[in-house]
């Protein structure tokens, strides 16, 4: 029940979207009165339903046989977290601990956020919305004469009552979408072919009159700052359109996952500042980190990172840069930027529900900060994600069409 939103929103149906948060509310109602074992296996299956796809990347390192173990690992980690929440029988304590789960990041991974269950439907997807729902459930349990009234008041207080007007960049923007398999993307044999394909996509966008062209994360699988000829080609094309592309960078013995901005014949580089745990960095003590890097990544070192997020300007518009995992982190939305341009490679995990969960997380932060997110992706669809609309407005607009 609690996890339904990840799957029902795949259908892009307004009725299912309306129903989704009520199923989650019923799930929380049952959980509040559960025993410790039920808390554990609720967390266990939430961990699996939300994050089973993380293990899919093992295929590309030759460790597909470990997929069941990694799925089991996620189940056990979140099972134990939920067990802690359910250790006390007092429902108020349980409610508080469940709320705090969204702000506890095991291994610096923040994708378990229970406020996300309110992204679809009528409610405000934030701390206020979740607290109001929990207060309504507690009222239903503890009030003797006014159970339904208490629940109703909680639901009313959780409703979304305003919506942010979305902002859009004032120039024609092309979000390039690619569907390159990970089997070929990182294979040096296909490097030249992929570079040619990316350059052709840029040429097509320029021909179609786009003034800002955004390519996905690692659209060029090379250390772009060490490729002067390729850089020069992109600089020349940038006299016609501004180009943002993902690529690797290498400097002073350090490797970075970066965005490169080509504009009017010049180039700027923005390095990623929040790395993917167990993908780009191992968030464990050095002696364990070295052993895991040796075992899974042929001894490669962790990526290095920038000291903070990066902002840049396109057509006098200030834009916050985000590379994949960064677009789902609260730090990226500090000071509520008007625009975030994000690039991702979801090819590691597709086909799965990962792109949809990522989209819901982006929608959550876009709503919370009034930000419009331009998202260029490999492996799933590229799109513009705006703050959440009122469900009633969406419903009325459906009939107007």
TrEMBL record:
Any one cellular-component term (Gene Ontology): plasma membrane
Localization per record: Cell membrane
Family the UniProt entry places it in: Belongs to the CN hydrolase family. Apolipoprotein N-acyltransferase subfamily.
GO biological process terms held by the UniProt record: lipoprotein biosynthetic process
Organism the protein comes from: Campylobacter geochelonis
Molecular functions (GO terms): N-acyltransferase activity
NCBIfam families noted in UniProt: lnt, PRK12291.1
Signal peptide span: none
Residue ranges of the TM segments: 6-29, 41-63, 69-88, 95-114, 126-143
Keyword Cell inner membrane listed: yes
Record-given protein name: Apolipoprotein N-acyltransferase
Keywords of the record: Acyltransferase, Cell inner membrane, Cell membrane, Lipoprotein, Membrane, Transferase, Transmembrane, Transmembrane helix
Gene: lnt
Membrane topology: Multi-pass membrane protein
Enzyme Commission number(s) of this protein: 2.3.1.-
């Amino acid at each position: 029940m609690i996890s339904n939103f990840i799957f029902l929103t795949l259908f892009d149906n307004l009725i299912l979207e309306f129903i989704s948060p009520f199923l989650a509310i019923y799930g929380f109602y049952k959980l509040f009165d559960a025993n410790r074992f039920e808390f554990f296996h609720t967390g266990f299956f939430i961990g699996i339903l939300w994050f089973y796809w993380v293990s899919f990347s093992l295929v590309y390192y030759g460790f597909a046989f470990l997929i069941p173990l990694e799925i089991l690992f996620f189940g056990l980690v979140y099972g134990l977290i939920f067990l802690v929440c359910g250790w006390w029988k007092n429902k108020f304590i349980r409610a508080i601990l469940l709320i705090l789960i969204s702000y506890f990041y095991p291994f610096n991974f923040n994708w378990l956020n229970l406020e996300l269950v309110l992204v679809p439907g009528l409610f405000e997807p934030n701390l206020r919305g979740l607290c109001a729902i929990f207060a309504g459930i507690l009222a239903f349990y503890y009030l003797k004469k006014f159970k339904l009234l208490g629940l109703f008041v909680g639901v009313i207080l959780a409703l979304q009552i305003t919506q942010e007007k979305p902002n859009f960049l004032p120039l024609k923007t092309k979000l390039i979408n690619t569907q390159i398999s990970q089997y070929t993307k990182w294979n040096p044999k296909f490097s030249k072919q992929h570079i040619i394909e990316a350059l052709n996509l840029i040429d097509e966008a320029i021909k179609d009159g786009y003034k800002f062209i955004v390519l996905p994360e690692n659209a060029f699988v090379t250390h772009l700052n060490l490729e002067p000829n390729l850089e020069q080609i992109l600089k020349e094309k940038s006299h016609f359109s501004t180009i943002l592309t993902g690529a690797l960078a290498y400097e002073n013995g350090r490797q970075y996952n970066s965005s490169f901005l080509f504009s009017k014949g010049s180039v700027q580089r923005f390095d990623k500042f929040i790395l993917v745990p167990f993908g780009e960095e191992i968030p464990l003590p050095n002696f364990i980190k070295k052993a895991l890097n040796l075992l899974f990544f042929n001894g490669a070192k962790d990526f290095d990172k920038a000291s903070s997020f990066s902002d840049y300007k396109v057509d006098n518009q200030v834009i916050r840069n985000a590379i994949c995992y960064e677009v789902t982190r609260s730090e990226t939305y500090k000071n509520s930027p008007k625009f975030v341009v994000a690039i991702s490679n979801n090819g590691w995990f597709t086909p799965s529900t990962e792109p949809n969960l990522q989209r819901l997380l982006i929608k959550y932060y876009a709503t919370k900060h009034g930000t419009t997110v331009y998202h260029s992706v490999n492996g799933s669809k590229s799109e513009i994600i705006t703050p959440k609309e009122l469900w009633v407005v969406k419903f009325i607009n459906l009939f107007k069409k």
